[in-house]
């Protein structure tokens, strides 16, 4: 055994020995994709690996959240905001060799309504008509103006497919992106290789292995031992500090779109009274939650809007200062005593940790939270999300710009405010400035009415070898854009 | 899960008994009793008293090092580790007791009935036992966790059912031995019912090996609970469980390495205690080790 | 004078808690055959294992053990030199042939090993060949096949022959045998002893033969040492010791061994004071009284069986046919077992240890002895009579009730009428129960106070004080336990008592006491007795009628004296021949 | 003889069928809707219903069982509802990893346990024997994943000698395969070794008290030689029982080590598939595990008949 240790001892890790630039990269990720088809499979794992890397849309979000051209070279919008004319890049081919043309756009987008069942096919509802003007020009007409539509086009639903490449989406991804999938082992790894015929600039990293971990400690151990070079989106922040003091590594703190939310069933008996919900707002010391459950990492936001959105309102974080006495007072006003609530949380580390703090603090204002840990996603989705059989939960909402969907009355939060719904609808159709204004107003109302207690914004922290450049810091979209990374 | 033989060392049959140093297992037995007693004491004391509340959250005292204020330091929630260890003894003993109780409660009657009815019934029952042996405790825990939700009760039940076949095997082989004893024939000749013979003659006479098996299974159950906690199938917070403390401490290995040590030591003490107890009892119950007079 | 082969001086063996051998000294001359006799716990096996240097680690020995031609004291000699002696100069045969051989190794290899270890044969091949020769010398019928066999394929007697072949392989100066035939059937025992005697005589090997059985010593040895509580109490020529024992213990031992010698009251000689059998207190419940009243009203006429030789293949014969209503009536009884696994390699496959077409009667008040060897079917018969096993075919009526097919519910009354006493005093009492509960077991629906009274009365009837009721079996000696067994069997006032080798496991002195007790109680209770044994002496003493059973059939039967004095069947003759009486022994050795 | 073999195979088959029914029934009451998990939080009830139908989950249980088991019998485990790939290869890949890991760890455990156990038995009454058995006692009492975590911390993170986890196929890169195998195999093997050494010790002690060892001593064999020539084969019988059971329970039991080292083994696959309610896959995995254990028991029995001639003549 000792002999074999000596034998293998020196060849581990990614340290390059020759003068050749090392263009292979191993990334450690947590959520493993079940398959390669995000048109029918939910979850962020597949878009994280494939979007912008294997699949591309007409537009993309850059790391700061700005909509940028991708397969569309440029576009114009009519004055009424209804007609979008896209000028497409030419000479683009899919990895199976078929050309990308305006017809591909029409095919891909029209496919969404009937064939997509996951990742928000409804986002494309505003589309009224798609016209192929020429091979490189496409005109999309909306039924009503929508500010969110183009943003959504930067996500999975905007993906361009070729008719010859959709036979087996679950196992065979055919896109126009800089990489192709060279191997995929469920639960273990997904290997990307550069697409030799890529229409754009070839990425620096020629071979990228995405390795999937189930355990955050195993993930950081792999980075420490040199098995991997990059962790995108660490989930347990107590693991971060050791890297800060280590010169071999860099720690990148960025913004995410993950609002960790203490949700209350607005439609249920316990929390139908706004004063009770507000009591919960005052009862929770969000800084303490952040400090204990999240090792102090994260940002107190107080609403469902991250700072990367233009309508972010920093003052909402202070709307409900920690004030247990006020909470007790509100409960008295509402005539509630001995409140006992079913606190059903998913079995995810941040939720389990956060719930303990929440429970402890609710205790202090006389609310008994009976914590049940539900298996996520299977049981939590059924019980809390679909059947609304809960009083309180704790979950991170990671989709970008998800405040709108939170306000839908049939959503699991049961928050029903006609005023907010109306404002969101108006905002989507309004001009840019009014859009921002209305969005800000609506989301402020949500916080005022305590639709939920948005505890904090999960930070997007990436850990990487010190020599790695261009690591995306923020996660404005679901995608992990590998094209900028170099060494 | 440390895949300890689900049947424990007693499984290899009543004739296969290890001998430990010390006459009649005296020293071993006492060492085991002392270690287990220590844990029981911790569990009992913690019912009324712990230095601090082991279930609260104390943002002001996060990750304190061991010292005079906090004997073993505090964890990431500011909880006193010593208090958690004390209270955790309750869960450890509870899991062990209930798991072993279920295993013995199911397995022993099953094994005795099979052993008392050689032939078709025995064959049939043993085949059933083979099938349940093929569903190890951890597999059951995973499936039960999915069906009933993870938690202490699920874990205990899964461990109990998973260990029951081992008890059945031991009880059966013991019963078959006792059934050939003449006092069982005498009881039958005296017109005693099967139930009477099972309860009054067989059970007391196989209790030695069952107790040995129980003490070994107890240790295994404690280890298994720790493993399940690691997989997120164990006792949910805030109830302190050693297994979960271990799992939580993992993230702080480089920040506060001692955190992983304390629950590790606690588990080792309890498991070691029960294993020693099992060895000691085995030697005591081994008729061939008894001094003939 | 040549020095003795073995010389033991002041040998003391002790555990950390007590001294077990108190400084014994003796010699064994070259070629001499010495018997070492004593009851269990007297220290005879310790003596042998001390000589071999194979004492358990917890025991320590002091004194000197010298072997002719070896300089060192064996007790202090280094392990290495002992290893060279053991199996070469010094060999030993153990009691239990079933476990003394390695079950996973071929017999031939195990015999050959002793020669390769001591390099007495140049190579493996030669050692194997010689092993085959040795197996032939110990009279195994097909030595080459036997060498290829695994131990479990041999019978007990065959295995003991293998052990002898192994022990004699290197022509040792001294052979130690620890109860070499105790585990064997009587007929086999005689053959093995004869073989042993011949082997040591041929090689002029000195023999130290340990046994509890005087007959064995008389058969083989020239000199006998008698041990008692860790001391040698008597040492002399066999003839002298048998005919004129000097030490009180030896006298008692020999007296008790002789089942043909009885005192004026027809009782066997025992070592301790005679047991006073207290009269039975009148039974309490009325049902019991009726039975007794009946019994006294109609005194049972002693039924005398005809002396029959039941030939195989002849017409079905009913042994001991009784006119009217016998206590037990068995007709065409057969019992087969489906036994997994094959039989021995040479023995006629003992696949079916059953009964074949057995028919007999037992009259009320009769004392029937059933004699046979292990596997003859006698235990099966006994179990069927007690409804602990069911016949494959045929009928069994006990006290007028057919029990072959009866349900447990129907047997309820039967259970109190027929009781059983087993062989093993250790195994027949539940170690976890108190004596009170053990004895009370056959009582049903009786209140606590009465149970107590009846248990107390029954215990005193078997000669035990009432204060034993709260104790557990392990606190009693073998003889006392057998008394407890008898008390349990009699507490329900049965009319039939079945005893299975009830005294075989007891030391001779205790055996006599228990036999006396049994005889007294059978009289007292007017019991019908079925006594199963391999020991003709016991049968002769206790039973008026005997049936000899072999291979599942009754081959001969009749009045005990007739059958044993004038055996008709060859098997019976063999049995009788293998079991000489004390008088015959004494006569034989003095010649 | 043929009949006996046929009977045993028949019995084995019947056991497998019963086990498959148990598996199916147990998993059919799993809460959570596979269709909803596949579609996620944005799906409508109509989507979920359509998906349920598409997955065939709306059929009666008996039909689903027969359909499933019928296909399993011809080697078709069906298609995963999640990965949409054939389940068979997924299981074989994962099983291969677990089996390699378990067998390696068992070999390591034996390499440690046999000499260690024998030594501590032979030197039972000496201080070094007590120390040896004390070490194995403590080894048994340490949770396996703790051992794994500490190994990673020392050898991967601190010393950087070996990778902290992951798996490389031996066909792809033998050196890498071995590197990735060492730590998990040691982590799994160390605890097993401690357990096994206690069994070895106790069964060696047991054997030393057998009469035939005394016979061997009486032949002039020294303690060591008697034990070696006559004791070990006999002592191997109970140890083999334990070994068989250990391997059986390790197939799932290795999941903890698989998690610590991020190995895509069978236990890990099971946990993932259970989380995703990929029922066909879960059923397949559980069935494979159960059959594997049954098969293992069968093989252990067979091994006994090879070792022990007494059992050979029984058939």
UniProtKB/TrEMBL annotation, chain A:
It comes from the Bacteria. Gene3D superfamilies: Dipeptide-binding Protein, Domain 3 (3.10.105.10), Periplasmic binding protein-like II (3.40.190.10). GO terms for biological process: peptide transport. SUPFAM superfamilies: Periplasmic binding protein-like II (SSF53850). GO terms for cellular component: ATP-binding cassette (ABC) transporter complex; periplasmic space. The keyword Transferase does not apply. GO terms for molecular function: peptide transmembrane transporter activity. Keywords: Signal. InterPro entries: Peptide/Ni-bd, SBP_5, SBP_5_dom. It holds the Pfam family SBP_bac_5. Residues 67-398 form the Solute-binding protein family domain. This is ABC transporter substrate-binding protein. The lineage of its organism: Bacteria, Bacillati, Actinomycetota, Actinomycetes, Micrococcales.
TrEMBL record, chain B:
Keywords: Cell membrane, Membrane, Transmembrane, Transmembrane helix, Transport. Its main location: membrane. It is found in: Cell membrane. Residues 1-13 have a biased composition (Low complexity). Residues 1-20 are annotated as: Disordered. One of its GO terms (biological process) is transmembrane transport. The chain crosses the membrane at residues 27-49, 91-116, 128-147, 153-171, 210-233, 253-278. One of its GO terms (cellular component) is plasma membrane. It holds the Pfam family BPD_transp_1. Residues 89-278 form the ABC transmembrane type-1 domain. It is a multi-pass membrane protein. Belongs to the binding-protein-dependent transport system permease family. This is ABC transporter permease.
TrEMBL record, chain C:
GO terms for biological process: peptide transport; transmembrane transport. The keyword Transport applies. Signal peptide: none annotated. Residues 6-254, 328-576 form the ABC transporter domain. Keywords: ATP-binding, Nucleotide-binding, Transport. Gene3D superfamilies: P-loop containing nucleotide triphosphate hydrolases. GO terms for molecular function: ATP binding; ATP hydrolysis activity. InterPro entries: AAA+_ATPase (IPR003593), ABC_transp_ATP-bind (IPR050319), ABC_transporter-like_ATP-bd (IPR003439), ABC_transporter-like_CS (IPR017871), Oligopep_ABC_C (IPR013563), P-loop_NTPase (IPR027417). Belongs to the ABC transporter superfamily. This is ABC transporter ATP-binding protein. It comes from Cryobacterium gelidum. The lineage of its organism: Bacteria, Bacillati, Actinomycetota, Actinomycetes, Micrococcales.
Automatic annotation (TrEMBL), chain D:
InterPro entries: BPD_transp_1_N (IPR045621), MetI-like (IPR000515), MetI-like_sf (IPR035906). One of its GO terms (cellular component) is plasma membrane. Residues 95-300 form the ABC transmembrane type-1 domain. The chain crosses the membrane at residues 9-30, 94-119, 131-157, 177-196, 235-261, 281-307. Gene3D superfamilies: MetI-like. It comes from the Bacteria. Signal peptide: none annotated. It is a multi-pass membrane protein. Belongs to the binding-protein-dependent transport system permease family. This is ABC transporter permease. It comes from Cryobacterium gelidum.
């Amino acid at each position: 055994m000792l002999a074999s240790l000596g034998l293998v001892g020196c060849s581990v890790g990614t340290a390059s020995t020759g003068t050749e630039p090392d263009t292979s990269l191993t990334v450690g990720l947590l959520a493993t994709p079940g398959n390669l088809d995000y048109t029918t499979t939910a979850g962020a794992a597949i878009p994280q690996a494939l979007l912008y890397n294997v699949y591309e849309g007409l537009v993309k979000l850059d790391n700061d959240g700005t909509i940028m051209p991708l397969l569309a070279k440029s576009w114009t919008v009519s004055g009424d905001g209804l007609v979008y004319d896209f000028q497409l890049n030419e000479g683009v081919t899919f990895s199976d060799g078929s050309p990308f043309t305006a017809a591909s756009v029409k095919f891909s987008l029209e496919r969404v309504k009937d064939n997509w069942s996951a990742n928000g096919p409804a986002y494309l509802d505003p589309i009224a008509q798609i016209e192929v003007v020429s091979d490189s020009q496409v005109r999309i007409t909306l039924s009503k103006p929508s500010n969110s539509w183009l943003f959504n086009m930067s996500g999975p639903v905007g993906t361009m497919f070729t008719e010859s490449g959709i036979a087996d989406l679950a196992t065979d991804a055919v896109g126009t992106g800089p990489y192709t999938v060279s191997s995929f082992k469920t639960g273990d790894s997904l290997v990307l290789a550069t697409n030799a015929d890529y229409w754009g600039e070839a990425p620096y990293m020629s071979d990228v292995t995405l390795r999937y971990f189930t355990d955050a400690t195993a993930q950081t151990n792999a980075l420490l031992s040199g098995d991997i070079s990059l962790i995108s989106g660490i989930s347990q922040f107590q693991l971060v500090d050791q890297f800060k003091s280590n010169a071999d590594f860099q720690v990148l703190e960025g913004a995410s779109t993950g609002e960790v939310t203490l949700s209350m069933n607005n439609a249920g008996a316990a929390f139908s009274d706004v004063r009770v919900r507000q009591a919960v707002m005052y009862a929770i010391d969000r800084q303490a939650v952040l400090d204990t459950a999240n090792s102090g990492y994260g940002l107190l936001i107080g609403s469902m809007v991250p700072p990367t959105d233009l309508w972010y309102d920093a003052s909402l974080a202070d709307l409900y200062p920690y004030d247990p006495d006020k909470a007790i007072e509100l409960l008295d006003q509402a005539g509630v005593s001995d409140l006992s609530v079913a606190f059903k949380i998913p079995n995810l580390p941040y939720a389990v940790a956060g719930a303990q703090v929440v429970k402890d603090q609710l205790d202090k204002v006389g609310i008994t939270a009976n914590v049940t840990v539900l298996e996520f996603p299977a049981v939590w989705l059924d019980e809390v999300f679909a059947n609304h059989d809960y009083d309180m939960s704790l979950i991170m909402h990671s989709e970008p710009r998800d405040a709108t969907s939170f306000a839908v009355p049939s959503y699991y939060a049961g928050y029903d405010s006609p005023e907010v719904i109306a404002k969101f609808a108006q905002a989507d159709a309004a001009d840019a400035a009014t859009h921002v204004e209305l969005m800000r107003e609506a989301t402020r109302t949500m916080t005022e009415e305590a639709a939920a207690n948005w505890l904090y914004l999960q930070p997007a922290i990436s850990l990487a070898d010190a020599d790695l450049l261009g690591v995306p810091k923020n996660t404005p979209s679901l995608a992990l854009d590998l094209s900028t990374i170099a060494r | 899960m440390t895949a300890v033989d689900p049947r424990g060392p007693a499984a290899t049959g009543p004739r296969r008994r290890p001998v430990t140093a010390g006459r009649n297992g005296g020293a071993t037995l006492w060492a085991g009793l002392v270690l287990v007693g220590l844990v029981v004491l911790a569990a009992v004391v913690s019912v009324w008293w712990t230095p601090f509340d082991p279930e609260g959250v104390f943002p002001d005292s996060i990750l304190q090092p061991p010292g005079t204020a906090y004997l073993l330091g505090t964890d990431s929630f500011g909880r006193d580790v010593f208090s958690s260890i004390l209270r955790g003894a309750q869960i450890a003993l509870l899991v062990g007791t209930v798991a072993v109780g279920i295993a013995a409660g199911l397995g022993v009657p099953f094994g005795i009935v099979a052993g008392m009815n050689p032939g078709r019934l025995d064959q049939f029952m043993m085949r059933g036992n083979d099938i349940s042996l093929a569903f190890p405790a951890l597999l059951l825990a995973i499936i039960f966790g999915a069906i009933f939700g993870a938690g202490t009760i699920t874990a205990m039940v899964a461990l109990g059912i998973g260990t029951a076949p081992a008890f059945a095997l031991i009880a059966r082989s013991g019963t078959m031995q006792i059934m050939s004893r003449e006092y069982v024939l005498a009881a039958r000749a005296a017109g005693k019912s099967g139930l009477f013979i099972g309860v009054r003659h067989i059970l007391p006479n196989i209790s030695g090996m069952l107790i040995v098996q129980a003490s070994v299974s107890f240790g295994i159950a404690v280890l298994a609970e720790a493993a399940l906690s690691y997989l997120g199938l164990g006792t949910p917070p805030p109830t302190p469980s050693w297994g979960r403390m271990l799992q939580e401490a993992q993230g702080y290995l480089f920040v506060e390495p001692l955190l992983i040590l304390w629950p590790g030591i606690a588990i080792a003490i309890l498991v070691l205690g029960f294993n020693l107890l099992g060895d000691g009892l085995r030697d005591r119950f081994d008729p061939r080790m008894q001094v003939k007079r | 004078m040549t020095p003795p082969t073995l010389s033991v001086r002041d040998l003391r063996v002790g555990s950390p808690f007590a001294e077990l051998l108190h400084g014994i000294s003796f010699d064994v001359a070259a070629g001499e055959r010495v018997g070492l006799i004593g009851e269990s716990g007297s220290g005879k096996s310790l003596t042998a294992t001390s000589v071999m240097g194979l004492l358990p680690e917890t025991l320590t020995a002091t004194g000197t053990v010298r072997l002719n031609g070896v300089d060192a004291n064996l007790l202090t000699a280094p392990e290495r030199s002992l290893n060279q002696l053991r199996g070469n100069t010094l060999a030993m045969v153990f009691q239990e042939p079933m476990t003394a051989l390695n079950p996973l190794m071929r017999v031939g290899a195990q015999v050959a090993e002793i020669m390769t270890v001591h390099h007495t044969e140049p190579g493996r091949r030669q050692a194997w060949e010689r092993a085959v020769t040795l197996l032939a010398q110990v009279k195994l019928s097909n030595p080459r096949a036997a060498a290829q066999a695994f131990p479990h394929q041999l019978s007990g007697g065959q295995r003991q022959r293998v052990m002898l072949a192994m022990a004699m392989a290197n022509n040792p100066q001294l052979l130690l045998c620890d109860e070499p035939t105790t585990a064997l059937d009587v007929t086999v025992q005689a053959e093995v002893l004869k073989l042993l005697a011949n082997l040591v005589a041929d090689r002029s090997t000195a023999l130290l033969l340990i046994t509890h059985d005087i007959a064995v010593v008389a058969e083989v040895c020239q000199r006998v040492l008698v041990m008692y509580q860790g001391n040698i109490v008597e040492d002399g020529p066999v003839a002298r010791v048998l005919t004129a024992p000097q030490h009180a213990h030896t006298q008692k031992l020999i007296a008790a061994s002789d089942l043909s010698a009885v005192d004026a009251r027809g009782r066997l000689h025992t070592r301790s004071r005679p047991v006073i059998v207290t009269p039975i207190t009148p039974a309490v419940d009325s049902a019991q009284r009726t039975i007794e009243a009946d019994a006294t009203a109609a005194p049972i006429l002693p039924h005398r069986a005809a002396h029959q030789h039941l030939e195989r293949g002849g017409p079905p014969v009913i042994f001991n046919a009784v006119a009217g209503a016998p206590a037990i009536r068995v007709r065409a009884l057969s019992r087969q077992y489906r036994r997994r696994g094959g039989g021995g390699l040479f023995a006629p496959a003992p696949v079916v240890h059953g009964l074949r077409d057995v028919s007999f009667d037992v009259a009320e008040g009769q004392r029937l002895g059933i004699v046979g060897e292990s596997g003859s079917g006698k235990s099966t018969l006994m179990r069927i009579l007690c409804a602990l096993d069911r016949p494959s075919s045929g009928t069994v009526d006990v006290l007028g009730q057919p029990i072959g097919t009866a349900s447990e519910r129907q047997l309820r009354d039967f259970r109190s009428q027929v009781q059983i006493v087993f062989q093993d005093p250790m195994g027949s009492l539940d170690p976890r129960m108190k004596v009170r509960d053990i004895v009370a077991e056959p009582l049903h629906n009786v209140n606590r106070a009465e149970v107590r009274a009846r248990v107390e009365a029954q215990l005193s009837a078997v000669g035990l004080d009432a204060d034993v009721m709260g104790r557990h079996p392990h606190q009693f000696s073998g003889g006392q336990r057998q008394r407890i067994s008898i008390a349990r069997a009699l507490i329900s006032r049965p009319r039939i008592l079945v005893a299975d080798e009830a005294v075989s496991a007891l030391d001779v002195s205790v055996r006599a006491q228990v036999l006396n007790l049994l005889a007294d109680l059978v009289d007292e209770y007017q019991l019908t007795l079925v006594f199963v044994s391999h020991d003709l002496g016991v049968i002769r003493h206790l039973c008026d009628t005997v049936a000899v059973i072999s291979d599942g059939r009754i081959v001969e039967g009749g009045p005990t004296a007739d059958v044993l004095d004038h055996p008709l069947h060859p098997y019976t003759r063999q049995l009788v021949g293998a079991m000489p009486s004390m008088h015959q022994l004494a006569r034989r050795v003095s010649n | 003889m043929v009949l006996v073999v046929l009977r045993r195979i028949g019995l084995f088959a019947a056991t497998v069928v019963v086990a498959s029914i148990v598996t199916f029934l147990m998993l059919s009451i799993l809460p959570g809707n596979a269709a909803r998990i596949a579609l996620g939080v944005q799906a409508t009830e109509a989507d979920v219903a359509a998906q349920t139908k598409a997955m065939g989950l709306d059929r009666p249980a008996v039909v689903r069982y027969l359909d499933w088991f019928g296909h399993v019998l011809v080697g078709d485990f069906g298609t995963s509802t999640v990965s949409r790939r054939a389940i068979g290869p997924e299981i074989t890949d994962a099983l291969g990893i677990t089996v390699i890991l378990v067998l390696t760890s068992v070999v390591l455990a034996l390499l440690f346990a046999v000499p260690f156990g024998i030594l501590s038995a032979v030197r039972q009454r000496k201080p070094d024997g007590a120390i040896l058995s004390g070490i194995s006692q403590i080894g048994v009492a340490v949770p396996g994943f703790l051992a794994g975590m500490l190994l990673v911390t020392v050898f991967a993170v601190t010393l950087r000698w070996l990778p902290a986890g992951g798996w490389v196929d031996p066909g792809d890169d033998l050196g890498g395969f071995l590197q990735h195998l060492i730590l998990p195999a040691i982590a799994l093997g160390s605890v097993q070794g401690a357990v096994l050494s206690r069994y070895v010790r106790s069964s060696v002690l047991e054997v030393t008290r057998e009469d035939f060892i005394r016979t061997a001593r009486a032949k002039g064999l020294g303690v060591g030689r008697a034990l070696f020539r006559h004791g070990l084969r006999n002592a191997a019988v109970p140890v083999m029982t334990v070994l068989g059971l250990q391997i059986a329970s390790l197939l799932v039991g290795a999941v903890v080590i698989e998690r610590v080292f991020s190995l895509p083994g069978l236990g890990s696959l099971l946990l993932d598939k259970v989380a995703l309610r990929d029922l066909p896959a879960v059923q397949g995995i559980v069935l494979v595990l159960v059959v594997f254990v049954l098969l293992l028991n069968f093989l252990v029995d067979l091994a006994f008949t090879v070792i022990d001639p007494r059992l050979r003549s029984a058939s």
